[in-house]
Amino acid sequence: MHQYIAGRREDGTGEADLTVLDPATGRVVARSTHAGAEDVERAVAAARAAQPGWAGATPGERSALMHRLAAVLDERSADLAALETSQTGKPIRLTTNFDVPGTVDNVAFFAGAARQLEGKAQAEYSGQHASSIRREPIGVVGSIAPWNYPLQMAAWKILPAIAAGNTIVLKPAEITPLTAIAFAEACTEAGIPDGVVNVVTGHGRVAGEALIGHPDVDMVSFTGSTPVGKRIAEIAAQTVKRVHLELGGKAPFVVFDDADLEAAIHGAVAGSLINTGQDCTAATRAYVHRSRFDEFVEGVAELFAAIKLGDPTDPATDLGPLSSLRQRDAVAGYVERARGYGAKIVVGGAFPDELRGTAYESGAYYRPTLVTGVSQDSEIVQQELFGPVLVALPFDDDDEAIRLANDTPFGLAASAWTRDLVRAHRASREIQAGCVWINDHIPIISEMPHGGYKQSGYGKDMSSYSLEEYTQVKHVMHDITGAARKDWHRTIFSA
Ligand code: NAD
């Protein structure tokens, strides 16, 4: 039963057969039914009914329940990590050390942040009124999440919304619904009232569109690809909903000639391969000063070749499969087309030979792939692949490096590698991205915002910035003169 509505698991009433597959083996992990419009209707009604009570709880009360949620999730860490691995193929080392503890930390952060929400203090701007700001919840939030970090994305969407007094209906990606439901169940167990957190699982075109177009949903928050984000904004515009979009990325990784090359090479490998490259902030375009280019390519190729692919449940495995065969084939398609237009595949570009004849033979695996010899305007440099593929291109001076880094429609994240303070400051100022790392690439932290520039979207996840986005600002203007006839009435009354 893969719908979670008003504190209960239910079957969906939509078209049959929601099948969750383990992408490492193709084995069926779970079967259920998809949500149809009717389920979305009930979930939105449950969220609407719960909203006034939840908004009426004090910040301290909401915070206490969310702290309890952190404890419930923490207790279940091992089970959650195993469940996430089973539906995504992520190595257990990643789910155990990153997905689950990151989620628990996020819950703890928002439990604290729930008590920090404040409007500006009162001030008497007109001399005749006291003005103050109320920050109020928006109401019912409809959220849609992708499949790359199902548990963390559920947390990023649910937590700021409920910390601010909203209720929510979340639709996770159809291929990875299991940990979002486990998260919602943990909310109930922690004592968060029924209807505050609801999950509908189903297809984007059916359940997703029913949710964002629903007249009783007040705000839409979406994490996913840029084309779907555009469609969501269009649908939401029909009912003038507030929209929050966290979209695709194509992060540049700029290595200046004075960089610590050992650090840059290790950073590029970890930063491009995390989550098998299915990370919206993953390093995808390495721009390396021509004087260090060969050394960089050689170093990355050597480490890529040594990466151990295989059983995601084995702590010794470095890299799992992609999230689905469809995604693996899409990534392989980009690489094959690049071969066709003259790219050099330095390493990778194929299914790992060592997995042939094993239980993982039909898994969605793809070797870490390093590509050179392509031009800046080629498809593999401009478009988001979402796989374990790094493209390296040389540059000759700092102006060119920054120009190339900014030359895609995306602007989610970037990194610059240098020991020169002035260069570091210039890169952080001039690279157009929601996050710029200096001498690192990937780390995130609950206290700091995550979100895009340009076609990577608008709105922030995590941090107090996201909390504010799930509120609306009300100005209260209170007369302090007590006069029946106000000065400004002169505009109407002549005498
Ligand atoms: P996707 O856009 O295909 O799907 C995302 C979600 O949207 C899924 O739940 C899907 O069912 C739903 N959906 C699809 N069509 C829909 C429609 N017409 N109406 C409503 N909902 C619809 O993305 P994906 O392939 O699941 O995830 C990968 C993408 O997510 C990448 O582009 C990646 O960069 C992006 N992403 C961004 C961030 C970020 O914070 N910016 C984080 C993670 C992933």
UniProtKB/TrEMBL annotation:
<dbReference type="Pfam" id="PF00171">
    <property type="entry name" value="Aldedh"/>
</dbReference>
<keyword id="KW-0560">Oxidoreductase</keyword>
<protein>
    <submittedName>
        <fullName>Gamma-aminobutyraldehyde dehydrogenase</fullName>
    </submittedName>
</protein>
<dbReference type="InterPro" id="IPR029510">
    <property type="entry name" value="Ald_DH_CS_GLU"/>
</dbReference>
<dbReference type="InterPro" id="IPR016160">
    <property type="entry name" value="Ald_DH_CS_CYS"/>
</dbReference>
<dbReference type="GO" id="GO:0016620">
    <property type="term" value="F:oxidoreductase activity, acting on the aldehyde or oxo group of donors, NAD or NADP as acceptor"/>
</dbReference>
<comment type="similarity">
    <text>Belongs to the aldehyde dehydrogenase family.</text>
</comment>
<dbReference type="InterPro" id="IPR016161">
    <property type="entry name" value="Ald_DH/histidinol_DH"/>
</dbReference>
<dbReference type="InterPro" id="IPR016162">
    <property type="entry name" value="Ald_DH_N"/>
</dbReference>
<feature type="domain" description="Aldehyde dehydrogenase">
    <location>
        <begin position="17"/>
        <end position="476"/>
    </location>
</feature>
<dbReference type="InterPro" id="IPR016163">
    <property type="entry name" value="Ald_DH_C"/>
</dbReference>
<dbReference type="InterPro" id="IPR015590">
    <property type="entry name" value="Aldehyde_DH_dom"/>
</dbReference>
<feature type="active site">
    <location>
        <position position="246"/>
    </location>
</feature>
